[in-house]
């Protein structure tokens, strides 16, 4: 499950930016390294909400800096949904 | 990532619309080698102006939004150092809507716009304040969640008065060609924030000035630009982009391609090998609907016409409060029923450009009907300006067939893909494409519309490519 989230998120970032999945590293900064701007961070949040049927809060969104952050957030949200 | 040395260019951009020009400038600014190929002899696409017999007209795009410091246009003006090259004026109000009962000014100040609407619709006073505060201030994820509802649903939450809802929907019709029931509240609120709250701007010298200044800046940044010849084919070697073939037997190699033209042209006509696309993508390309086209009228008046309204703002006229019907008439090809339009009077008080969204139908239809439609359009404007016909000393028009000639965009579409709820929310065409190193940066990437929208996309696409080059 968690491996899938990682794969899916990298796939999503790849579709959004045209970076190839293998070029996207977990420690990459979404804004500084991948060229994603603030509007697209919102797009990522919306895509996460649609795909995983979760709600991303404003405060959670502003804490996403790296690819790993986005994966961790999705995992947390999925866990929370299960409870 | 190292720069591949044996290529002619790092990036080739197809089309010198605002998206392509902005993208080219940002990439060239970082020292990469960029070529822009434009089929027309001048840059700008729909963002051009022309002068004839001493009259001055914008061809299609007629005003700018987002010129505030951190707005989409404001940011490129400062980052590309255009401040001293272009002068942009702002009108207040930015827009005026005229209906059989009201004349409503969209002032630049929030308090004033609320008061204006409240004085016309006193029964909805509290809701008007709530609505404008919401629309003007919403940000972040609560903003993006608006993608799930239509603008009509949002208006229903606030208002009862049918006329008020129609007036608030009208700017959508003339800026993206859709009624409130078909647009996501996200798209509509974006439009309000970019075109109405921060709208009413116009470059001195016409809209084309922006295109000329960007093109000039691109050359200063050592970018190459070829006019008058279209790209005919994108070629590949082992599934990687090799280069583009330009009419006149020229071939240029490149690492990246950015297409600022119609997505269908790009994926269907320029790429012969369909192996890059899965069936789902090709189906989407086939099923996606383009936006409506536009009929633009250019009128030159003798200087004695005193019934001319004052100001250089955009004026909208709506004959009834059924915006949905206006849209339905357009898609049903009932062009005689289109009883709304917008116009803008130049500072010279003699040149008027007026437009209405119309269906494409086909080229022959417009060749045959151009004259009749021109005359009936003038009659409609005459309802607002009695005696107008007697003062016209120059008239010409651009039909959907003309728009098709300018842009080569699918069905002469004015705003790229139609920004309906379903086409925007189901993740349409984004900048990154199924073809490695090929990006879209015009209004055929679904999320953007209008000049500020494509300027944003141009900058954003450049930024991704710069990052991919490891800069």
What this model shows, in words?
The complex is a heterodimer of chains A (83) and B (471). Chain A has helices at 2-17, 38-52, 58-61, 67-82. Chain A is an all-alpha fold and 83 residues long. Chain A has a single domain (2-82), classed as Non-ribosomal Peptide Synthetase Peptidyl Carrier Protein, Chain A, CATH 1.10.1200. In chain A, helix 1 (2-17) packs across helix 4. The longest helix of chain A is centred in the N-terminal third of the chain and has 16 residues, at 2-17. The model of chain A has no long low-confidence stretch (mean pLDDT 88). Chain B has 471 residues and is α/β, with parallel strands linked by helices. Chain B is built from 16 helices and 18 strands. Chain B has helices spanning 18-29, 72-79, 110-120, 125-137, 140-144, 151-158, 162-176, 185-197, 208-220, 263-270, 279-287, 323-331, 363-382, 400-407, 421-425, 450-468; strands at 9-14, 34-38, 49-52, 55-58, 88-90, 95-98, 103-106, 201-203, 224-227, 231-237, 240-246, 250-259, 293-301, 314-318, 340-345, 351-358, 392-398, 438-440. The model of chain B has no long low-confidence stretch (mean pLDDT 94).
Task: Please write out the topology.
The complex is a heterodimer of chains A (83) and B (471).
Chain A: H1 2-17, H2 38-52, H3 58-61, H4 67-82
Chain B: E1 9-14, H1 18-29, E2 34-38, E3 49-52, E4 55-58, H2 72-79, E5 88-90, E6 95-98, E7 103-106, H3 110-120, H4 125-137, H5 140-144, H6 151-158, H7 162-176, H8 185-197, E8 201-203, H9 208-220, E9 224-227, E10 231-237, E11 240-246, E12 250-259, H10 263-270, H11 279-287, E13 293-301, E14 314-318, H12 323-331, E15 340-345, E16 351-358, H13 363-382, E17 392-398, H14 400-407, H15 421-425, E18 438-440, H16 450-468
Parallel strand pairs in B: 1-2, 1-12, 2-9, 6-14, 12-18
Antiparallel strand pairs in B: 3-4, 5-8, 6-7, 10-11, 11-12, 13-16, 13-17, 14-15, 15-16
Helix pairs in contact in B: 1-9, 1-16, 3-4, 6-8
